[in-house]
User: What shape does this take?
Amino acid sequence: MSPAVAFVVAIATSDVSSIFAPISAPADASLRAATLVLVITIGIFVVVGGLLAYGVVAFRRRPDDDGSEPPQVYGSDQIELAWTVIPIVIVVVLCLVTARTVYDVQAAVKPPGAVDVTVVGHQWWWEIRYPELGIVTANELHVPVSDPADPTPTYLALESADVVHSFWVPRLAGKTDLIPNRRNHMWIEPREPGLFRGQCAEYCGTQHAHMLLRVYVHPRTEFDRWVAAQRQPAVRDPGAAPGRRLFETTACVNCHTVQGTGAVGRFGPDLTHLMSRETLAAGAAPLTRDSLRAWIADPDHVKPGSRMPAMQLDAPELEQLVSYLVTLR
Ligand code: CUA
Assistant: This one.
């Protein structure tokens, strides 16, 4: 199989997120606008491409050509009007439809059952805060499924700690930028449970490509269970005491928070319930004991350019630290 064919097969058979399979109201609106744009532009392509192909075939050089020029047409008012007015009308229609779609999505009134989440973009991970629920997590957003009869959409306030990022989960909504010193807003209203993938959609530095997003949409009772678990204080396993002491006495605490310890850093992800997440380093690796060990030993190897330094621990220390972190369920 050639690399190109392998690439196409990989895309077609993967669960890559697509704007053509929306399951949330803002994504429905985007798809309607995108479909209209596609239909119009495909129409233009067919007309222009068809005329071009016709001209190339019908007026090709023939053996009995005498080499003279065909009649030259200058200053045809009809033709000039047609190629000026028709494109203007098409562009105006596309502008109006786009503006109405943007306005409709932004003007949606927040229902009382809405969940509020603040998402902060960092190089290169997502900080996710639920201000009303007192939960802080990273990279994996958990939301309830929304029933049209009793809507529980999730309203996102988007901020950035450093450069411009962009929040994009194609099946849930269009892109919205996270801009330093500014608060942007968007909302999602997933009507199906499941895992929906997304990605930072604005180039933000070396590891932009490893700034992945996972949105877990839960039935209401399951979401409530997740909330209750996240609100628990960090597990304090006596068996992991040496690792905890090591964690609390190295520079880890400057960047990470573990509720109930001296670690209150905000530069890196909150680790209070680290092991409740499925991935590590904003989706760069699945979260297992082995990947965690590899990550702490040399973050730059897993994610070149990562802002997390290697702590230069010796092997027994590394093992103690990992043994502590895996208790943080
Ligand atoms: Cu964050 Cu690209």
